[in-house]
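Input/output pair, single chain:
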Amino acid sequence: MSDLAAARARYVELIARRERISSKRLLDALAAVPREDFLARGPWRIKSEAARSYRLTPDADPVHLYDNVLVAIDARRKLDTGLPSLWAHLIDVLEIGQKDDVVQIGCGLGYFSAVLAEIVGPRGRVRAIECDERLAARAANYLHPYRNVEVVHGDGCEALDESADVIIVHAGFSHPHPLWLQSLRPRGRLLVPLTQRDREGAVIKINRRGKGFEAEAVQQIRIFPGQGRGMTALDDRVADWWQRAAALAPLRFRRLEQGLPSDG
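Output:
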């Protein structure tokens, strides 16, 4: 076994053990998708989950990418790739299956789009939406070999024109967008980080249940804010309300009023 193959095997084993991943399809996808194919050529600026600053890898050997580290996409904006263990856990929570139609809002450079594409298989589909035009163009190039992925340059709060089994949001918002809820099919799942202006908050999973919805908090998160995320104290209070309420018990509601659940 080559050093790179051994590093990939250790990477998958680390994530599986740390997050207690139950989906074999997810683990197989993590093993199959080369992380280096979705980044510029190294050396890379990387950091661990707890680190305050980046460190530069000693060279461009992809073996350095097969650890639970963030990789800088734009260090100046503090825009990184997703932490592998975090997003593997969140994808596992969504129980994505073969043939599912998945919408990914904020696909970045497309690494997790490829992971999702492997999970849903050739009869499933991934629509990867990215609001940054340059990132979208790079993602489309990197994802070209994945025939079941469509990259869309657009606003994830506006670009949904079809229903989906799963919607996964890779950026922070103050509350779920009504369009995301409306686009969920029966038994559909939405996962969205609800954060304040300091980028801190909680990931909320929302399931479609008949004519209504059920929301629960999954875990804490710190994440890059989404395009159009409100930047007022009121938006912060809405995000905080969701985080506190969903952590206590599942929230059942039919629609949103000013970003908050309503049974009306």
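The chain has seven helices and 14 strands. The first strand starts at residue 45 and ends at 48.
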